[in-house]
Amino acid sequence: MDFAKLNELNSMTKKSDASQAKKNEFQNELFTLLVETGYDAIVEKYMFEGVSLGGVNAIYKYYITKSPEEKNQIMSAISTGALFVQNTKGAAFRVLVDLLMNTLNDSEKDLALLAFAIKNIPAKCKSKENKLWGDAGKTISKNLIFALILDTNLPAFEELNIKEAFIKEFKSIIAYTLSTIDTQEPWQTSAIEKFEKWIKPVERNIEVTMETAQMPSIKENKKAEVTPASAIKPLKRNELNDLSITLKSISDRLVATADQMQATDKGVNTLNAKLSVVQSEYEAEKCKTSDLIDKVGQAQEELKQAQSKNDSLSLEIFSLNDKLKIMEHEISRLNEVIERQESVLSVYSADKQNAQVEQLNIIASKLRPEYLDFKNAINMSMSLDLGENLRQQLLSIFKILSKCGVDIERR
């Protein structure tokens, strides 16, 4: 696929201010890439960098076309992606909010993706110091609460296959966000009321629930025997002290073991996260290497064609140089011929001009007597004799001209 258009759109400044046409174009390009390659590190990069252009919308559009097994693979790929794990400045949190918004606004809600978003949002909306990202509430209000289609039906949390602790923390975050919203338009009020109704009733305290769940119930064990108080043998003071020390030792070991298990789990999670990052980076570098190999092969082929063309042009230039030398020699020869002919023509032209001047002088000499007679007759009165003389004089002039080569009758 040609990434030129994606890169052009992704390089825009202030992507959130881009026109809807630009956003649609980016989403279509990203969807095409998804169809060709599936969800990988490159797709993750464009989705995270182009989240303001609706990159998550393209992911959701691609996700809903897949089978349940393929959907699970996509959710797994998203959760283990390098950028998702790093969650720089809450970027993964923004992606999850957009996924949740797309799912809730869909008439056919994907409960698995809904559970995935609700389960991960509480963790990803906080920094490593377990502090809520500064704009988390704004992100939820703008991209979820006020982006909700008001007539959509919100599913019950009981339909989701996730632990109550995740649901409780998610509800707390939504409740906190709702409490921070001040200015409300009528449609905003409807959206807020819809979410308030969705997260009610307020969830129970999870810690209390877990503690009470560990206590045995008589109702649950109908065969349990009750020992009468009179049958219990009282313990001596030193026996009580020994028992207390033993119980404290066991309790300390349990706490130490729990701490060690927690530290081990944290280390495993850290290693898994690092492994995911390394795997994503490896896949990205692998794709880059493959692209570079293709480009190198293409460049080598182009170089080979260019060298072949260069050899052909060199032969053609050599041949043209030979022809040029021959033509230059021929031009030189023709220039010499022209110079000789121009010299001859110059002589002929001078002779011709001299001959013409001489001829004119001869004509003028022969016509002079006639001209003098005409000049003498200018002031004379017209008579028959004078007219006859003029006619004879004209005939004489024409004869002189004819003898000198000016043949008027034939021209």
Folded structure, characterized:
By secondary structure, this protein is mainly α. The chain has a domain of 220 residues. 73% of the residues lie in helices and 0% in strands. It has 14 helices and no strands. The longest helix has 140 residues.
Please bin the fraction of helical residues: over 70%
- Report the strand count: 0
| Number of helical stretches of at least 4 residues | 14
Order of helices and strands: HHHHHHHHHHHHHH
| Quaternary structure type | single chain
Structural class: mainly alpha
Mean pLDDT value: 81
Radius of gyration: 54 Å
Tell me the distance between the termini.
86 Å
* Rough outline: elongated
Task: Detail the topology: elements first, then pairings.
Blueprint (H helix, E strand, L loop, with lengths): L3 H7 L9 H18 L3 H9 L5 H9 L4 H13 L1 H5 L4 H15 L5 H14 L11 H10 L18 H17 L5 H14 L6 H8 L23 H140 L7 H20 L8
Helix pairs in contact: 1-2, 2-4, 3-4, 7-8, 7-9, 8-10, 9-10, 10-11, 13-14
Observed structural traits:
411 residues; mainly alpha; 14 helices
Compact overview of the structure:
The protein has helices spanning 4-10, 20-37, 41-49, 55-63, 68-80, 82-86, 91-105, 111-124, 136-145, 164-180, 186-199, 206-213, 237-376, 384-403. By secondary structure, the chain is mainly α.
